[in-house]
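User: Structure with zinc ion, tokens only please.
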Amino acid sequence: MPKKLRTATPLVLVALLAVACSSQPDTVASDLVAQADTLDPITAYSDGGDIRMNAPTRERLVAEDPLWAEALRIHYDAIVMDGHIDTPSRMVDDGFDFGTRHTPRRSDHHVDIPRMFEGGLDAPFFSIYVSSRLGEGSESTARALRMIAEVKRQVAANIEQAGIAYSAEDVVRLTRSGRKAILMGLEGGHAIQASEEVLGQLYDAGIRYVTLTHTGTHSWADASQSRPQHGGLTDRGRELVRAMNRLGMLVDLSHVSDSTFYDALEVTEAPVILSHSSARALVKNVRNIDDDMLRAVAENGGVVMINFFDPMVNGRLTDEVMDAVYDRLEREHQGNLNQIWPVIRAERRDRGIPSGMLEDILNHIDHVARVAGVDHVGLGSDFDGVSSLPDGMEDVTRLPWITYGLLKRGYSEGDIRKILGGNTLRVLAEAEQVAFDPTD
Ligand SMILES: [Zn+2]
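Assistant:
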């Protein structure tokens, strides 16, 4: 159960990291004996990477504030992970070439390999996103498989710089060899056709988390932006969560309704993730989660990865503004929460509310660290999947500013490394351990 898992966790990760460092790649993690108290986040969550920010910018920043030297050292050495990046949709729909540098000001593409190096992003989960509109039939699964194939094709074409990661151990091995570790998560549980066989097929193809729903409620789970039909997870939904546990696939509770969230926590044997959600106490958006939910994730041992999407973090979207948004949704769209984004946009325009700032993202990290604990917060940018980002977070090259901001707010180096990727890596390793020993 979750509590037991939490105490067992560091052992798993120490073992994994030991495997990654050893010359015995065949040794399985659970065969290794290590002491939990030997886990030092500073060495454990390190890939030994070089500072890849361009020299003039680096020099200017350090001249402005010597704290930047520390921030750069930590940031590029840390294993930086991201729970949710939508670049695969761009690859399939727009022929986007992930190996070529794109200029952010001239395109809304936020991520490519050259800019991942520049921004120090090491191990993102690429989202295999399937629209709710495609329904629960084979068309959705086919879409997912096509997208996975395209990610693999582009990674293979850039094999010197990147590799597909299938495990926490792969993340450590790839990033310590100076390459980017590309993980894949399925956004939209409807694409598994409520079938354990299809779930297994997607696992075999490389999927390591399933976002139980996207915007649409489907046959076994309610979504946060649809009218509830089941009051959470159905019995079939519970079975599928257990099947994910058995495979070592993370259960992602971003996008699900609050009742699905609690039902999934009740069933899961492994820690969960929210691959791209922020704090509802700061922005009362249904896509964010409230403080009780944050505490429930902490109890489960999971991690909440902060979404950077402006309407989810912008501190100017006060409770009063959001109440007006929900009233307007009721008036103009019969309360259809799928329309929340255009309505927020309209309300902001009417009130002249500007974009958020990078500090808003830091406020959400701070809040989750305070309420759930620093072991339960990570990054889940939603790059390439969102239409607006706070000022100062234009694309993946801006990630070092998160590290600098956390240092400036007094976070320790160990805690910063946990937030940047250590927590996510730990949770991935724990889910693998549950799969390895499902009787736990
Ligand atoms: Zn999403």
